[in-house]
From TrEMBL:
Keyword Transmembrane helix among UniProt keywords: yes
Name of the protein: DUF4860 domain-containing protein
Spans traversing the lipid bilayer: 12-34
Keywords, alphabetical: Membrane, Transmembrane, Transmembrane helix
Species the sequence originates in: Candidatus Lachnoclostridium pullistercoris
Length: 129
């Protein structure tokens, strides 16, 4: 009888598959995390830019109010001025010319938003047949 040679037999098949699966999962989670962080950064950047634009317009409005007050009485009429924030928004300021009291200080949208009603959405009414 032939005697079988005792060679060390290593079973690496299932271990290698599990290891590759774990590495793939970690890689996918890392890519998802990087994508999420990138989107969050872009969102925060847009919010910071919008806030900076608003405060720049606010600063210009405060300088204008100070200039009007320092020039003295402007009569009994209402003084109005617009300060652009972005392409779609404007800061509108209105002052009383005699007391220099701020009558309005508001952000106004320049664009008219149109409602898209092209999809056939149920309006809550039953159709009679």
């Amino acid at each position: 009888m032939e005697q079988k040679l005792n060679k060390p037999f290593i079973r690496i098949g299932i271990t290698s598959i599990i290891f590759i699966f774990i590495v793939m999962c970690l890689s996918v989670f890392a890519l998802l995390s990087v994508n999420s962080a990138s989107q969050s950064y872009a969102s925060v950047r847009r919010a910071a830019d919008a806030a900076s634009a608003y405060y720049a317009a606010d600063s210009q409005a405060q300088i204008w109010i100070h200039q009007v007050k320092s020039e003295g009485e402007a009569g009994g009429n209402v003084l109005r001025r617009d300060f652009p924030i972005s392409d779609s928004q404007t800061l509108q300021v209105a002052l009383d010319g005699s007391t220099f009291r701020i009558l309005s200080y508001q952000v106004v949208n320049n664009e008219v938003l149109e409602i898209d009603d092209s999809l056939p959405v149920w309006q809550g009414e039953e159709e009679l047949q």
